[in-house]
Each structure stands twice: as C-alpha cells, then as structure tokens.
Design brief:
Elements: E1 19-30, E2 33-44, E3 48-52, H1 59-66, E4 74-79, E5 82-83, H2 88-92, E6 95-98, H3 110-120, H4 126-136, H5 152-164, E7 170-174, H6 182-197, E8 201-205, H7 209-215, E9 218-223, E10 226-232, H8 238-246
Parallel strand pairs: 3-8, 3-9, 6-7, 7-8
Antiparallel strand pairs: 1-2, 1-4, 4-5, 9-10
C-alpha cells in the first residue's frame, strides 16, 4: 500500500456529546458458561475506545452483541440512545463491522464484492463507491481478481474497505490489524484517526497493548467477563494495563 506519514492521535472528543453506546448490566451466557457478567458502559459519539483482555475475557462477545449478531442473556444495549432490540435493521445501517471472518464472497471478485455490499447498504452509485474504496486500500489493480486468490493481508484490507463503504457512524473492529504489513498498519491507523476526527465512534478489540495506548483515547480491560479497567489512555501506563489483562 502507499506509504503514509504517521499522524498524531485525534484529540479527545468534547465533554458534552451524544451517546453512541450504552450498556447496562449486560450479561451473556453461552452453553451455560457466563461470558459477560453484568457490564455497565457508556461510550460517547466520537470516542476511540480499545478493548483489551486475555483470551476468553469476553471481548469479541461484547462486539458481537453491539453489532446485534447475537442477543444478550440479560441487561440492555442502547445504540444512539435507542434500544438495540427495536428496529435493529435501521440501527445496523449505522454500524460497520470488521470481524475475524471477512464476510466476503470468495468466488466473487473484489469489485463485485464491494459493489454488492454498497448496493446492500443503499449507497448511491455502488460501483463507483466500490472502485474508490479499492483505490483507497491499494487494491484497485486486483479489482477483477476473485477473493480466493488474495493473500491474508489483502483479504483483511478488502474486509476493512467493505466495513467502511457506507460511512458508518459506529465502527466495531475486532483485531483489525491482523495480517497487515507495516505500511498497511500505518494506513489503517491513519484511517481510524480520520474517522474519529470526523465524529465517528470506533470500538476496537486489539491484542497489541503498546499500539493501543499510542492510538486509542480510552482503554477498557475485560477480565473474567467484567470491566477491570476503564480509563483514558493518556492516564494509563503500560505496566498497569498488562497487569490488569493478566490478572496479576
């Protein structure tokens, strides 16, 4: 991908802002195993939040609940101050998701995939938007190649392009830097910073603690399905976060 200069983290959002996500006493049980145990969170519009935690802490489960891919076992989720269970289709149009799975069709070309999703999202001129997204993520030269011929990093870049096609107000990103080379990581960091500077809300699961403290504005650590730490990154040290993640 085209090299880009590393940009400073976006400035913190103003104190008075709308709320993008509210979670109250959120519980999720899977196969009789408690995964989330009564989480309370409030995330304002324009915040850049990173969720950290050891394997099994409930990070991906929380993102799936916010994306309305699964239902909570208890508690309440409000998205843009509306209950997630009411008119979920309308709410999903305001959300973008970067998942562990690409959600792409392997037998379709990159251009066909993005054109299809752009039309699904109701984007005007879907083919033009798809081509612009491919160019943005340095994939235009492979526009007519099937996804099954792509490397892991190329699939990840295409999945990110898909998630951003409809300019979502809330982006949920589960390990978005996985499989990317250093230049692609720099571009994605810049893209995320631009989204937040434009007032979008970003909630990201990430395993790289130093990177998280460098690029995000707020860090939430989950441990055993509960919130172990919730603090602005500029008020949090690396050693403290690592200790909270490991439970030491």
């Amino acid at each position: 991908m085209t090299a880009v200069a590393t940009q400073a983290r976006p400035s913190a959002p103003p104190a008075a802002r709308a709320t993008a996500v509210t979670v109250r006493a959120l519980v999720k049980t899977i196969d009789d195993r408690p995964v989330l145990r009564g989480i309370d969170l409030s995330i304002g519009a324009g915040e850049y939040v990173a969720i950290l935690g050891a394997n099994g802490a409930g990070k991906s489960t929380l993102l799936k609940l916010l994306a309305m891919l699964t239902a909570p076992s208890g508690g309440q989720i409000l998205l843009f101050d509306k209950p997630a269970r009411k008119d979920p289709a309308a709410l999903r149009r305001r959300i973008g998701l970067i998942d562990h799975q690409s959600l792409l069709y392997r037998d379709l070309t990159a251009l066909e995939n993005l054109t299809f999703f752009a039309a699904l999202y109701g984007v005007s001129e879907p083919r033009r938007r798809a081509a612009a997204s491919l160019e943005r993520f340095d994939l235009l030269a492979r526009a007519n190649d099937p996804v099954k011929a792509f490397s892991r990093g190329m699939v990840q870049r295409l999945a990110i392009a898909r998630a951003l096609l409809h300019e979502p107000e809330l982006l949920l990103a589960d390990e978005p830097f996985t499989g990317l080379d250093a230049t692609s990581v720099a571009l994605l960091e810049r893209t995320f910073g631009e989204l937040v500077a434009d007032g979008k809300t970003l909630i990201m699961v990430n395993h790289d603690v130093p990177q998280t403290l460098r690029i995000a504005r707020r860090v939430i650590v989950l441990r055993d399905g509960r919130v172990a730490l919730d603090r602005p990154t500029d008020e949090t040290g690396l050693a403290e976060v690592l200790a909270k993640v490991s439970g030491t």
